[in-house]
Automatic annotation (TrEMBL):
Pfam families: SRR1. PANTHER family: SRR1 DOMAIN-CONTAINING PROTEIN, SRR1-LIKE DOMAIN-CONTAINING PROTEIN. It comes from the Eukaryota. Residues 159-308 form the SRR1-like domain. It comes from Truncatella angustata. This is SRR1-like domain-containing protein.
Amino acid sequence: MSLKEQNAAERQQSPPVVLEYGYSHWTISSQGAADLYAAGARLWTKDSLRDIEQQLTEFKIRSSFAIRRIDGTIIYIKNPMYGVTEPIWKPIVEFRNYWRLVKSQPDGPPETYYCTYLIEWFNQIGTQFYGPIEGFEAVFQQIKKSWNNSATRQLLQDRIRALIHTSSDCQIIKVICFGLGDISVRPPSWWRIKNRELENPDRDTVMVEASMLQHCAALTIVDALRQYYLEKENSSGNTTIIRLLTQDPKYTEQTRECLRANGFEVVGPAGAGGFAEVDNETVVFSAFATAPIKQIIADLARPVLFIGSFPLEDFDIRMKPSPDAESPRTREMWKSYAKSDFPVAGEEIPSMASLHKLSICARNAKVD
């Protein structure tokens, strides 16, 4: 056998070299996540949301946090604030939506690719040092008075009553708000510097007045429901208690106190527990969320009403998913809802903090 023939024979006997070109953790993970999702795996459960809320509430005494992944496995994340007496960092939940699992590669190690929530650390020292805006409670009452005298308030009240009357077989026992924003935190230094240079400076509350207005709208929603059920039940003798809950992990303590004084129950300080309150007898109000509110709810329940924003595009120009993007599951959910515009009086649009950009989705039928 010639040398050439011998080399050819050896090559035939040797196994081929298989390159792992394009074979990455992300490729495998994203396909696996898509398969799990298609098979019905839920990205969020009430139990896991309650659990992470409880863990973060106890962060001073926990050395690590247990994070549930969508395949049911658990990973553990070290707690840098463990044992710290006066932590300046507060842990809150950072949600990852469907598209971060299957299309847009997330940051972090491959072990986190199956995670729909992780831990974000929020530095509180500046907020604690500067304190709340002086007199923010009085401004909130001014905004509330102006809102109560507006035509938009009456339009919203009438719309809520009409929708509930149409869905008369549906019972509502709570209104839950997500991410309406803080109403007391001071504006950043750069804003204060520029504001002082203006001929007619704005008041410090200008950056939180939209949030104040959204909380006023929430009060109107629950008032409309309470009034409707009171009138309906006068003849039946029944009594419906409708709770008003709100969750925003960046609420300051001063904001929480103010909201409680105005009829809100403040829940989920870490940003997760409030979702476990959502059920089929709920109204959800989320104005311009920075979390996947709709996707989370699609895994948990079918609220009677959903009031929120619907971005025209689910991805930005860099193909990053928007925080509250739609998903196959939310698209399916909306088939059971009728959508209408949030009512705002035309002449009041400039003063209504973009409420006219919201929509109201009403469930078509009772859900057992």
